[in-house]
Structure formats: C-alpha cells, structure tokens
Amino acid sequence: MADIAVPLVASAAKPGQFVIVCLKGTYSERIPLTIAGSDAEKGSIRLIWQAVGKSTAELGHLKVGDEVENILGPLGKPTHIEKFGTVVCVGGGIGNAPLLPIAAAMKKAGNKVISILGARTKELLILEDEFKAFSDEIIIVTDDGSYGKKALVTEPLKEICQRPDKPNLTVAIGPAIMMKFCCATTKPFDVPTVVSLNTIMIDGTGMCGGCRVEVGGQTKFVCVDGPEFDGHKVNFDLMMKRMQAYKKQEAQALEEYKKHRCKIGL
Fold first, then answer.
1. pTM for this one?
2. CA 156 from centre of chain
3. Which of 76, 102, 117, 230 is surrounded by the fewest CB atoms within 10 Å?
C-alpha cells in the first residue's frame, strides 16, 4: 500500500477509476491499478496491490520519498452511484481495495450497504475496519476458516439473495473466477451485478486492444468502456484464457528480478 502525491489525479478521481503506473518510465512495464482512495486536499491517491510479478514487487520495495516516474489517470468510467436501495459489495482478496471507495459512495448516496469480504486466510484479509465504517452489515469469510466463516463469498451472497427483501444491486470485485461465480449466484435471483475487470492493459486509452473482452457478444475495451460491466454479460472464460497469455514471461521476469536483488545484496 502507498499514498502517492499526484495532485491533478487526486482532484479528478472518482470511485471505480484507475491509473496506469510506470515506475521507471520507458524501462518499466505499464500496469493498471485501481484507485483505492483519494484525498484532493492532500493531493494524493492510495494504491493497494499484491506483489505477484516483477512490477508489483518493485513497487513494494519503494520507500517513503521515492518517486514513481509516470502515473496516468484517472482512467476508465466512474462507478454509477445512486440510491438503489440495498447494495451488496463483494470483495475478494486485493479486490477489497477498489471496492472500498465504491461502498463509501453507495452509503453516502443513501443505500443500505452489505459488505462481504473474502480472503484465502486471515493474514490476507484487508480493510475490514474501513468497510465497517460504511457497512450496515459486514460478513467475513476465509477459504481456510482462519477468520470469520469458512466459506467462499458466494455462500453468504446466495443467502442474501434468498432474503424476502433481496438486494437491488451487487458489486463484485476480485479474481476473475470469483466474479464469475458471484454472477452465477445472483443471476437466478435477477439481481443486477456489476463487476470491475482487471485485464492485460498497455496504453489505457483504447488504442492497443490488449484489454478487449466480450460483453453481451460484443467486443469491449476495459480501459475506456469499463472497467465496470454488467457481470451477467461478461464472457469470463474467454477473459481468463486471454489473461494467461504472458504468464511464462511474467514468471521469468520476476525470477530474474529476485536474482538481481540477491546479487546486489538487497
């Protein structure tokens, strides 16, 4: 997690939007990170990520006062916020980070907010206290049962959909497979479900086509048409297949980065 001083981005950022981060200019990968919070007065945005590749590992090694050479944003369409009634916010793992400002905005708009937060283990659960501030009801689940209820997020989501006063909207953010099954859970109950997609992305302006997904049988670009879409229309299987395209190269780059740090004694 880091609070980064980018006054222009902070002054314009809205829930649901993201930035493209390039740590060392032309020598670094461009990676999309959803804005987990912004403070226009301080001129800063908050980014939260999980170190899964070389670029995110490099970000994790930054110290206070270090610089990020390029941050482009805010990008993407903001979350549509209005008074829907009851909104279920479902977060999985690092997906809790971009979900938090959405939950806060939904509450501010007068909605009843039910938050379901999931993680593999207690140690990987983030932002529980922050969600409590905006949630009328909060449910915690972990895959291994080390905290909260031992379950996947789809279990309490189904129970909520079965209530006499079923929710008016669900917002789900997390791993692609988690969002896919959240949508499969809400669809039989006809509960509208919004998902935020985090695909392979390069320029973030709709030119490269790397982030294309199939939504309702049509090609959409996550960076300019999204990142949020009607989850019941997203072809998750195709999206997940495309996201595997550079796994080998990503693993190789991370391994070389680790070796380099060891070589120089870091």
1. 0.91
2. 20
3. 230
